[in-house]
Design goal:
single chain, six-stranded antiparallel sheet
Amino acid sequence: MKHSKIICFICCLALTSCAIGPGGRRGGSIHGHVRAGGSGAALILGAGVLIGTIITSLPKRHVAVKDDLYLSDGVFYKPTPSGYVAVAAPIGTWVATIPKQHDVVHINNYEYFRSHSTWYRYDFNKEQYQVVSNPFDN
């Protein structure tokens, strides 16, 4: 079991590094230098970005969610002195759209949307999605 986790982690790192081209550009959407930071278990977010990854400038297609929180292709970023760090989606955050690549999961008569490691519920009154905790953890 331990070896399979290590192999999986190495494969994820290899796939992530393959997607980063010259100059730190990843598929033309992330500009500037990209580096993985932090320690602990790797959690891959949308677009194959690891939590703790720091970029020097936000991707071209991003939206401000709050004063200090930005969203691009399912990845949330917070500003730091070094640039912008990829963070886990803050529970309770409201967003207008979710990534096109997502799963719909029905649990106890509720509809959840999952994109990578982030779970959402749609609110018809607000016409927005809210980041929620993993319904299987409850």
